[in-house]
TrEMBL record:
Species assigned in the record: Catharus ustulatus
SUPFAM superfamilies: PEBP-like
UniProt gene name: PEBP4
Keyword Cell wall biogenesis/degradation set for record: no
Protein name as it appears in the record: Phosphatidylethanolamine binding protein 4
Keywords on record: Signal
Keyword Iron on entry: no
Gene3D superfamilies reported in the protein's UniProt record: PEBP-like
Family of this protein: Belongs to the phosphatidylethanolamine-binding protein family.
Length: 202
């Protein structure tokens, strides 16, 4: 599916007149390193306008994609085809590289958290649940290098009511994801993926 999306984007960019008078260029969707690819498991799809599923890729700079990701595009569609229709799920999006990957003193920076997501909705790419942290666009600081944006999908235990503490609500940084999962008995994520980007002006 990801490969098909990349092919379609490439074909669109190569079509005569597709971008008016602009110079036609091919966008290259670079795959992650072997180390970073290990994080991607479970076929979780993260779908943004124009670029499609960005799981396990770098966001290319061409055609302003990094700028649009940071300034224009809202929350992505998140699709998990293997979701159990009668179960609920918890989605957490974090940046483990805040303020930079070399010294991530603010990891994990929480960008989005939704609980009580029906499995039936996840199958078709709808994240319709209880929003504990509203979506904030990825905006890596200038000259901070590449940042990973990670998505953790957990199956929510039946009857479990999940809340953030007052301290967690007050600050998006230094979020202890492992402790959060342990407190609410979430176990290991059923699926994880990530994309990598950096400041669009760098």
């Amino acid at each position: 599916m990801k490969l098909l999306g990349a092919v379609l984007v490439t074909l669109t960019l190569l079509l005569p007149g597709a971008w008016g008078s602009q110079e036609t260029r091919t966008c290259v969707f670079q795959s992650l390193t072997e180390e970073d690819r290990k994080f991607c498991r479970g076929d979780l799809e993260i779908i943004y306008p124009e670029v499609g599923d960005v799981g396990c890729t770098y966001i290319p700079k061409c055609h302003g994609y990094r700028q649009r990701l940071s300034l224009e595009w809202g929350e992505p569609r998140v699709r998990f085809p293997r979701a159990k229709k009668n179960m609920k799920y918890v989605l957490v999006m974090v940046d483990p590289d805040a303020p930079n990957r070399a010294e991530p003193s603010l990891q994990f920076w929480r960008h989005w958290m939704v609980t009580d997501i029906p499995g039936l909705d996840l199958r078709v790419g709808n994240v319709d649940g209880k929003v504990l942290t509203a979506y904030t666009r990825p905006k890596p600081p200038r000259h901070s290098g590449y940042h990973r944006y990670q998505f953790h999908l957990y199956m929510q235990p039946a009857g479990e009511i999940i809340e953030l503490s007052d301290e967690e609500r007050d600050s998006l940084g230094t979020f202890n994801l492992e402790e959060f999962a342990e407190v609410f008995d979430l176990g290991r994520p059923v699926a994880t993926t990530q994309f990598i980007t950096k400041n669009y002006e760098d």
